[in-house]
């Protein structure tokens, strides 16, 4: 397999030690080296160089509550529920491709129809269709008539023996984990959100059997008493948690039970409208929203591990981004810092899945499942809205960076700020707009300043001899800016006014390069006009 080296990027992962000016060497689909450019490049040899233009690189997102064969009540869901087996597999393959392209490189499926998820995973692994890495529960286990019983993505079981058989049947098919519905939910017409649906002996049978086979168990669960009982019996993860209490979140924190809050499911009216979801379900969903958010805040407060999961298809175009990113924004707005949001979207889920030796961080030895974005994810979870590039196993599966329309505004802003900094005598801010290898050629200088060192020497001499101009105004006017990828050219007239003297006008051409997300002047040419 080919070798690639990513350059001109800032590497960020949940270990919170960002490396700017970084390079990432990828060999055979895995990360071979990561660090400062100068340290990595000697090992790169003939690797193909991929310039990421100052982007932020993180591990791919993980969506822990995925249904690629989701079918809610209403006509939208009906069109999925009635697909034949071949159409269903193709439908799910399309969802898998879209999911990967949205930047989600790993999913945890928590109820899929007809075991088509296992066929899909085999096809992805074999390279026949593109898609994320899939960890799946197969069918979810549910009591007769329980939550989600209408679809072929659940298996009805009653009594401990039937639940044991249900667990074993999923594992036999290839399940990595077990999903069980232990209470009612939003999408069930004959139940309430707080309807208990499993008896303790059934829940115990699920947990004992799954754990004996080395599989974790996650439960669709709303009300606190049901969650409390399951946590006590050894449940590994709670989905939704609509009606938690301080007592139950304390128990979850103490026992290390994770929460995938799926906040979107009680705040996605436009999605429901798009699918024609009936009024009774919409009312129940949106009505549960405030209590749901309160539960989530309690869990955060108690120190429960929270993990990203959307329930909506991960890639779904929703409120200007994907459902996955929108969910992460809701989690952040509910009290998760950007750093913890990054963890909840990458390393946290990977640890729950037991895959941290292979995935979850940008470290040597791990799969090169990476995404690149324009904005800094440690500044805001909304940075993931700017994902433009996706790599899985060392292969670039999406690259939209060329499609970004050139934007002259940040270039103009950098130039204006530089002259503001000059007026404010703020040398550090002025210099932040200069490329380390800036060359300067001004007609009123004794000669070209070929390096930054020559520029610094000139400025020292000028300032120490008291010749630094005291200006009332310094402004770039009549700007004409062109941007080509990571390079820009700006032409403008620089107007300098000293108090009581006529304005001095200089015609300037600046060449700028974008590095580390900022435009910096690499060459400055100025000609005094008379
Ligand atoms: Zn779900």
Automatic annotation (TrEMBL):
The keyword Protease does not apply. GO terms for molecular function: hydrolase activity, acting on carbon-nitrogen (but not peptide) bonds; metal ion binding. It holds the Pfam family SnoaL_3. InterPro entries: Amidohydro-rel (IPR006680), Metal-dep_hydrolase_composite (IPR011059), Metal_Hydrolase (IPR032466), Metallo-dep_Hydrolase (IPR051781), MQNX/HUTI_composite_N (IPR054418), NTF2-like_dom_sf (IPR032710), OTAase-like (IPR057744), SnoaL-like (IPR037401). Keywords: Hydrolase, Metal-binding, Zinc. Residues 411-526 form the SnoaL-like domain. Residues 22-46 form the Aminodeoxyfutalosine deaminase/Imidazolonepropionase-like composite domain. The keyword Cell membrane does not apply. Residues 56-397 form the Amidohydrolase-related domain. SUPFAM superfamilies: Composite domain of metallo-dependent hydrolases (SSF51338), Metallo-dependent hydrolases (SSF51556), NTF2-like (SSF54427). It comes from the Bacteria. This is Imidazolonepropionase-like amidohydrolase. It comes from Thermocatellispora tengchongensis.
